[in-house]
Amino acid sequence: MKKSHIVGILVIAVAIAAIISTYGSSSTYANFAEAKKSDKELHVVGHLDKAKDMHYDPIKDANYFSFYVKDNKGEECKVVFFGTKPQDFERSEQIVLTGAMVGTEFHASKILMKCPSKYTDNSAEMKEFKGTKASI
């Protein structure tokens, strides 16, 4: 067997291993009902339930934040995030949670927020700052 054939086989084997590892570590989108049935890490898309209480006490435990989310199917679940509360969390329009169900709670490892301020036209606010120069 030629050296070029051996190198080619090794390159193909590495490529296949990379594809399998990427596919195996990727998570899928689901709702809370599907997350209850699964042991894998999933993405759940939903909206913050502002009628329910959020618990975050940075003096007692800065790495514990709990709140309630309604997924796109309308099912509500308590979410626990072991990290600090994201800035402007209450203003988020939509939330994408990455995590898994633990009992009746969804334990999130990541929180991604879609804030309405990033997607709306703020031309009135922009006019205030137009023409001003910052001094260094």
From TrEMBL:
SUPFAM superfamilies: Heme chaperone CcmE (SSF82093). GO terms for cellular component: plasma membrane. It is found in: Membrane. GO terms for molecular function: heme binding. Keywords: Cytochrome c-type biogenesis, Heme, Iron, Membrane, Metal-binding. GO terms for biological process: cytochrome complex assembly; protein-heme linkage. Pfam families: CcmE. Its main location: membrane. This is Cytochrome c-type biogenesis protein CcmE. It comes from Solitalea koreensis. The lineage of its organism: Bacteria, Pseudomonadati, Bacteroidota, Sphingobacteriia, Sphingobacteriales.
